[in-house]
Design goal:
It is built from two helices and two strands, in the order ββαα. The protein is mainly α. It has a two-stranded antiparallel sheet.
């Protein structure tokens, strides 16, 4: 029996240990004179052993390739996860930035609305005061000046009922002058 250790040049980490039990020396005969026949090897492996060596070697290659594929797949998966996490983080930052900008804009709009409401309230109070004051003034003038203009208004009304409108212009001007004097 012979033990041979074989290292694969393509896969240095794979080492095949070959146990040779059925070695036939020479030209497939047990005669030591076979070296003179020019054969290049002095050892032959049985077909079963050769098949087992080939099978084991192919399994090792397949296993190494599968491990490399799994390793590459895991690395790609991890890269995708890292990229997804980065994108998620960037999106969260962008969302927070937009929320902050929206808050600033909303605060500014709220400030403007409050200012406008304040101005409207001030104008309402001022207008109510002015309306009350003018109402009191007109009531005073109506009582005092209203009696003066009643006669002129009656004359203008009679004129419109009986005469042409061109002749009534004198009474219209007279009424206008009376009202102006009463309001002042």
């Amino acid at each position: 029996d012979v033990i041979i250790t074989y290292s694969c040049p393509l896969l240095p980490s794979v080492v095949a240990i070959i146990y040779i039990t059925g070695v036939i020396m020479g030209n497939r005969s047990s005669s030591p004179s076979s070296e003179e026949d020019g054969s290049s090897s002095g050892m032959y492996l049985t077909p079963e052993l050769q098949g087992k060596i080939n099978s084991d070697f192919e399994e090792k290659i397949i296993q190494v390739q599968w491990n490399n594929y799994r390793k590459a797949h895991v690395e790609r998966y991890q890269q995708r996860e890292v990229q997804n996490a980065q994108r998620q983080h960037e999106l969260q930052q962008k969302q927070q930035q937009l929320q902050q900008q929206a808050k600033v804009v909303h605060d500014e709009l709220d400030r403007l609305v409050d200012g406008a409401q304040s101005k409207i309230a001030d104008a309402t109070v001022a207008l109510e005061y002015d309306v009350k004051r003018l109402s009191e003034k007109f009531q005073e003038n109506e009582v005092s000046g209203g009696e003066k203009c009643v006669d002129v208004r009656a004359e203008l009304s009679r004129c419109y009922n009986t005469l042409s409108s061109g002749e009534c212009q004198v009474f219209a001007k007279k009424l206008e002058k009376c009202v102006t004097e009463a309001l002042s």
